Amino acid sequence: MWIVIDDIVYDVTDFAKRHPGGQAPLRNLSGKSCSWQFHKIHSRHTLESLGAELRVGRTSDVPNPYKEPKPTLIQQL
Ligand code: HEM
Question: Has residue 53 been placed in a domain?
Fold first, then answer.
């Protein structure tokens, strides 16, 4: 099971079983790019420590099927 974050492919097949966020989010996003979802939840240090063992290689143009929600400004302060 592979996921893509910032154009880097990670093999999370074994890691999914010990992922603190559970297997479901990784399964749902497998084969997809999920950069904004990842960065919303994790600190940038997460991949510094865990990324090296999961990293497979680089890719490009893998679509993220979900658009990042942006807040609507209703009043300028
Ligand atoms: C290589 C990929 C990933 C790694 C190495 C990883 C690692 C981690 C780690 C270490 C934590 C504990 C909190 C922290 O230290 O930041 C965590 C929590 C979590 N992760 Fe991931 N994660 C990955 C991908 C994802 C993806 C793609 C999602 C889905 C958006 C996700 C959703 C979550 C959730 C929901 C939590 C629980 C947050 C909480 O309960 O506070 N993770 N992950």
Answer: yes
pLDDT digits (tens, 9 = 90+) for 51-68: 999 999 999 999 999 999
Q: What is the chain's length? A: 77
CATH number, domain with residue 30: 3.10.120.10
Task: Write the CB contacts of 8 (distance below 8 Å, at least 6 apart in sequence).
Answer: 51, 55, 57, 58, 59
Atom 14, ligand 1: which residue's CA is nearest? 42
List the 8-11 sheet strands across, edge first: 2-5, 8-11, 55-58
Cα 26 to ligand 1 centre (Å): 9
Which residues, in sequence order, are CB contacts of 50 under 8 Å at separation 6+? 15
Is any atom of ligand 1 closer than 6 Å to the C-beta of 21?
A: yes
Name the stretches of the chain with pLDDT < 50: none
